[in-house]
């Protein structure tokens, strides 16, 4: 059930629909409730006092799905594993960019992904998923979830409908398909999943399964929330590493899931049970970061275009996997045009000389930071094959197009000419 629209949840004024950028400054929070403080305080409390014993009992009934006549529509503040003012305001604001009905925040991106998958894919069911995925997600789906009786079948991210349907038919032979999980663009190769096609596949599976369609879950970390809104294209649930662009300052760890309220109720319930919730202080930091997420992502996107163009001309670079370089009129270009607003600022490129050449390049950088993660204000670079995706089987790495010389770069908001100068001198060492 969606939350009622309180005065501090205004989405329009005088008939004008407010933009997410405007609503990030105030939506979900009233200064009147907190001594007229313009910014929400940090509610560093583990528990909340009840007005009465009856109110406490009602809150717990609602939280546990046992609502009785006369109980409130939603549970009041109870305990910070369940709810907290900072978390609730953050969740309200996260729904705005992606047009989600509800959102829940987690202690990490993998906390969001694992809780979502375990909530929607019970034992005996099958997850149909694209590949490549973030290395942690690949490990979760392929190696951890089978221990709980959840099987998986994959398809290549850039596959066309016939190939995906073949994988779907294989999956249905193993059990009911309850989730289609995708990541687009893919990490780290920037392959694209056609989300409209995935929605169509989900509906076809539903017809085969007596009306029980799998939930379409999309990792939107690479381009969202500013440059891509998969819910508008048929996704049911989005998952995020908020550590990346939303947090955007490389100073916190967090994740989120958002989308259909009926599915989010299952995810939120499991979060409460297993304790993958976010803490209030990190929620407060994310509220701060959301105020500038559009400015930061737009600046990084512009910088990335300049850096990618430089790399494409460099003789020691073999391939630049940048979405701005998709061949006009190609299937990938059409998918990108239909799904996204920009090319983003994270991409991979292949350094000549294999891993030795890549390592020599990485070790010679002076401004660009050699570190995992992405989406920060600073430019970060890593060698996925030996770090973020090291646990991915070598055969799967090869199948997905990894090369020994592939490095992933996440462009920040520095002066792009400084970044180019640093990259150039490092490539000279190869």
Automatic annotation (TrEMBL):
Signal peptide: none annotated. It comes from the Bacteria. Its cofactor is pyridoxal 5'-phosphate. Keywords: Pyridoxal phosphate. The keyword Cytoplasm does not apply. Belongs to the trans-sulfuration enzymes family. PANTHER family: METHIONINE GAMMA-LYASE (PTHR11808:SF86), TRANS-SULFURATION ENZYME FAMILY MEMBER (PTHR11808). This is Cystathionine gamma-synthase family protein.
């Amino acid at each position: 059930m969606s939350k009622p629209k309180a005065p501090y949840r205004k989405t329009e004024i005088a008939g004008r629909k407010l933009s997410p950028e405007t609503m990030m400054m105030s939506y979900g929070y009233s200064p009147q409730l907190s001594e007229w403080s313009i910014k929400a305080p940090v509610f560093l409390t583990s528990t909340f006092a009840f007005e009465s014993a009856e109110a406490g009992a009602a809150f717990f009934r609602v939280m546990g799905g046992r609502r009785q006549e006369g109980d409130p529509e939603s549970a009041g503040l109870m305990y910070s594993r369940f709810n907290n003012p900072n978390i609730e305001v953050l969740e309200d604001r996260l729904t705005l960019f992606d047009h989600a009905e509800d959102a829940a925040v987690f202690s990490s991106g993998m906390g969001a992904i694992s809780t979502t998958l375990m909530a929607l894919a019970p034992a005996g069911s099958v997850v149909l998923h694209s590949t490549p995925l973030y290395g942690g997600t690949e490990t979760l789906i392929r190696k951890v979830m089978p221990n709980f009786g959840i099987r998986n079948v994959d398809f290549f991210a850039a596959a066309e409908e016939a190939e995906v349907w073949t994988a779907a038919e294989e999956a249905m032979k193993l059990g009911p398909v309850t989730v289609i999980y995708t990541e687009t663009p893919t990490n780290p190769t920037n392959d694209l999943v056609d989300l409209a096609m995935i929605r169509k596949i989900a509906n076809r599976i539903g017809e085969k399964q007596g009306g029980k369609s799998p939930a379409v879950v999309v990792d939107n970390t690479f381009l969202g929330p500013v440059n891509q809104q998969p819910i508008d294209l048929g996704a049911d649930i989005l998952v995020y590493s908020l550590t990346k662009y939303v947090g955007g300052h490389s100073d916190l760890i967090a994740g989120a899931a958002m989308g259909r309220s009926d599915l989010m109720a299952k995810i939120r319930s499991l979060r409460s049970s297993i304790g993958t919730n976010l803490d209030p202080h990190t929620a407060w930091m994310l509220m701060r970061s959301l105020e500038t997420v559009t400015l930061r992502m737009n600046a990084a996107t512009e910088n990335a275009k300049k850096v990618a163009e430089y790399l494409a001309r460099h003789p020691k670079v073999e391939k630049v996997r940048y979405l701005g370089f998709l061949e006009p009129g190609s299937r990938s270009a059409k998918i990108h045009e239909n799904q996204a607003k920009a090319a983003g600022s994270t991409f991979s490129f292949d350094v000549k000389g294999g891993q030795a050449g890549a390592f020599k390049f990485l070790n010679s950088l002076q401004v660009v930071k050699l570190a995992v993660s992405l989406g920060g204000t600073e430019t970060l670079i890593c060698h996925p094959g030996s770090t973020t995706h090291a646990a991915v089987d070598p055969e799967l790495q090869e199948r997905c197009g990894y090369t020994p010389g592939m490095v992933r770069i996440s462009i920040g908001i520095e002066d792009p000419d400084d970044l180019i100068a640093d990259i150039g001198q490092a490539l000279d060492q190869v």
